[in-house]
Design goal:
globular; 9 strands; 264 residues; alpha/beta
Length: 264
């Protein structure tokens, strides 16, 4: 059994992050979570990037945090370890995926479990194989949910279905996940890579600043009133109207041609 790693591959304006621990269904070690946090933190300030892609090596996306390794050995963590550590690791990872001002796409094969499931739910778009499985097994293991499950699920699928997933531990297949509004798209397993690539290309060709500001406004609106959200929209509009992509969008509209956004 390996500790696993996160492989970062820069492909022009795209950053591909691969969870590379297939012998453990890409369950996340402490080091892998730290590597993801570091990679996303760096991406947030990289002006050359226009989209981020997260995927798993092998047959699965991610089987969650590696609790087996965490709880093995003779020496147990001291009291308060989870409260001190998780806000800077798993919770920081979910926060970054949800709030980074770049579009994030997850492509999911096989299992997306626990933290792995919530990682896919926090992304802007998740494309899954039709036979993929989304599962929140926290209570089946005897502990309560973390990594944003109780915030993400009710907003995506409503309280009734959130209860089914969290309290009853129901597994949701890729096709049902689309019907529920849990993810963006389900495709045949053989078509997953192509579907993710098409979506990433579309996002990378968009007005990156405006996409990031729209993502920020959507997140802000989850806990704001309508007047507060519209005020936030005004500030974002002021910023996006100062970009080169705004000028290009107007020019393309007047010239009746597709825009050629540069992300600036």
């Amino acid at each position: 059994m390996t500790e696993g790693s996160v492989t970062a591959l820069r492909d022009g304006a795209l950053l591909h992050l691969t969870l590379d621990r297939p012998d453990r269904r890409n369950s996340l070690s402490h080091q892998m979570i730290d590597d993801l946090v570091d990679a996303l933190t760096g991406a947030a300030s990289d002006d050359g990037l226009r989209a981020v892609h997260i995927r798993g090596a092998g047959d699965d996306f991610c089987a969650g945090a590696d609790w087996v390794a965490t709880n093995s050995g003779d020496r147990r963590p001291r009291t308060g370890d989870l409260v001190r550590r998780i806000p800077h690791t798993a919770h920081r990872l979910i926060e970054l995926v949800a709030t980074i001002q770049l579009p994030v796409v997850c492509s999911v094969r096989g299992w997306a479990v626990g933290l792995g499931c919530n990682l896919a739910l926090a992304a802007d778009f998740t494309v899954a194989a039709a036979d993929a499985v989304f599962w929140e097994p926290f209570l089946a293991r005897g502990f309560s949910p973390d990594s944003g499950a109780t915030w993400l699920l009710p907003r995506l699928v409503g309280l009734a279905r959130a209860r089914r997933m969290l309290l009853l531990g129901e597994k949701v297949g890729g096709t049902d996940a689309v019907d529920w509004g849990l993810i963006h798209q389900a495709v045949a397993p053989a078509d997953l890579d192509a579907a993710a690539a098409e979506l990433l290309a579309r996002l990378a060709d968009g007005p990156t600043v405006a996409i990031g500001l729209t993502k920020q406004a959507l997140h802000y609106g989850q806990h704001a009133t309508l007047p507060q959200s519209m005020t936030q929209e005004l500030f974002n509009l002021e910023l996006s109207c100062r970009t080169g992509d705004f000028k290009e969008g107007l020019a393309a509209f007047s010239q009746r041609r597709p825009p050629g956004f540069t992300g600036r």
